[in-house]
Amino acid sequence: MKRLEYTVLSRVVLTFLLFLITTGGIAQTAATPLPGIDERGAKFYKLRPGDTVQITVFNEPDLSVLQELDPNGVLIVPLLGRTDLGGLTLREAETRLEETYISEEYLIDPQVTVSVAEFAEQVFYIFGEVNQPGAKKFPRGKQSLDILEAITMAGDLSQYAKRSEIVVRRPIKGSDREEKIIVDLEKVIRGSKRGNEDLITIFPEDIIFVPERMF
């Protein structure tokens, strides 16, 4: 009898949980879509002017918006008005919107999802000892590359390239400063062959410089 009662109770609880999920009683958190961004870039991609952004708020269809960021990285969000999302990662953008909805007392517990519906056309720059230097467009649908892909797009290194001290310069939003990364390409290649996915990732507006080696 006890076993039967336990079985019946388990079925009741399971049915109740399924009911809550299907009717919205339990929020289902969807993973942020990241079209065109590989696993290395997904965590770090930052929204840029010209990106078309999709914003949805769980159980609030009237607050959904599909809009392109203006040249200042701003878009018009329902209830919130002009909102600057430029330079934020997708998760940072979600957090900013959620916190603003709460602080402005529009929503109690908003669950916001931000995704990129279409990327603005972006480029990176590569100079120095490569066979085809200059500005390079990211392949359609991609917003990040590993450094090996970037060098391949520049026609590979010249015979005079210093492979151990390739420089990647990355602008820091909101300042005139930049991040400087020194890359030893031989170590990157060895790591890649071992299945190490910690490759240097190239983003839009990055500048790569390949110095000449000294004989």
UniProtKB/TrEMBL annotation:
Q: Which domain of life is it from?
A: Bacteria
Domain Polysaccharide export protein N-terminal, residue spans: 45-116
GO MF terms on file? polysaccharide transmembrane transporter activity
Give the matching Pfam families. Poly_export (PF02563)
Q: Keyword annotations for this protein?
A: Signal
Protein name, per record: Polysaccharide export protein
Q: Which organism is it from?
A: Oceanipulchritudo coccoides
